[in-house]
Amino acid sequence: MYEEIKKLDPFSYKFLMKEFERQNTTIELIASENFTYKAILEAQGSIFTNKYAEGYPGKRYYGGCKYYDEVERIAIKRCKEVFKCEHANVQAHSGTQANMAVYFTVLEKGDKIMAMSLNQGGHLSHGHKVNFSGKFYNRISIEMREDGFIDYDKTEEKAIKEKPKLIVVGASSYPRKIDFKRFYKIAKKINAILLADIAHIAGLIAAELHPNPNPYYDFVTTTTHKTLRGPRGGIIMCRKEYANQLDKTVFPGIQGGPLMHVILAKAIVLNEAKKKRFKKYQEQILKNSKTLAKELKNLGFDILTGGTDNHMLILDLRRKKLTGKEVEETLEEVGITVNKNVIPNDPNPPAITSGIRIGTPAVTSRGMKEKEMKIIANFIKEAIEKRNDKKFLKSLKEKVIKFAKNYPAYIL
Ligand code: PLP
Fold first, then answer.
1. pTM for the complete prediction?
2. Residues of the domain holding 367
């Protein structure tokens, strides 16, 4: 595999192979990452990358698009079936661009939006000041409780007082079920437009293991590469009344030629999402995250909100007097990849934090189950407890490599 890359660019090949080795010999616990299907890798490396197909099926600005039309149409159809939405645009290059498309469709510069801040578990594209969304719009935050749960009552009070034009419901780090219906009721009271960003939980929703904001939300955006396990990219769903406006915003509004090889891959993963084995996979993600949370709790760690309803859990390291940064670095030293995460009222700045976010989609894709989660919980505990013992960390890394190799991510 990759022989042509080797011939054309030995430098890039060297690092591709190093990354191949890294993926196979470490334990990937970043909640937003996954190991996609080989079919998706094939689609993304296919000849579908060669063609311009600006426009939409049946209305392209280039000739020769008839097969692309078929594939985009089936991707849209499958998306509607899987997520039960009225309209789908599968051209968004990423989750951020999917959100941008919604904002540009219904907001004016300076409008007020309500969303979780980055500190509360929201995403940069939910109005953070370093992102276009924070520069263009005036974001007020959703209210959170001390224990990490969304405070629906206080959020309602604030929404009624502040009257945001749009409410963004969704998160990058929230380990509990989101009550989409409650937000719907809040939005109805103030006539706000509703956007659910299901980037993280799309796979769970597709498998009907998490409530679905469709069809009653105005817009639903997602990435396709997290729990959904597809190609890196975005999708925007909406109610029929917004369909034309939204499609125009995506093209020609904010994007040029669609990435048709990625749309091919989206069609494939959306077909997979209809299968029984996909549901089983999503169920296993949940079993694994619940097991990991329980085991880590038994080993003396505090879990934010006390547990998890989805694919992720958040360690609260305050009582252990550790920072997210040092735990992330220690775990990386032994081959376990996680990311630091802000917790409510975090005494540390975002570059340090007092939390760690842990997710199970990627390890589940490698065939790991509850038994393996117990082993991983012990690896985590040992690494953290003996973080100053370099010799021990080295021997633990060897153990992790041996363990990870039993569950190949990919075989060359
Ligand atoms: N929305 C949420 C909730 C996310 O977690 C992310 C990515 O982590 C995004 C949007 C943005 O996705 P992308 O990185 O594809 O722009």
1. 0.97
2. 284-405
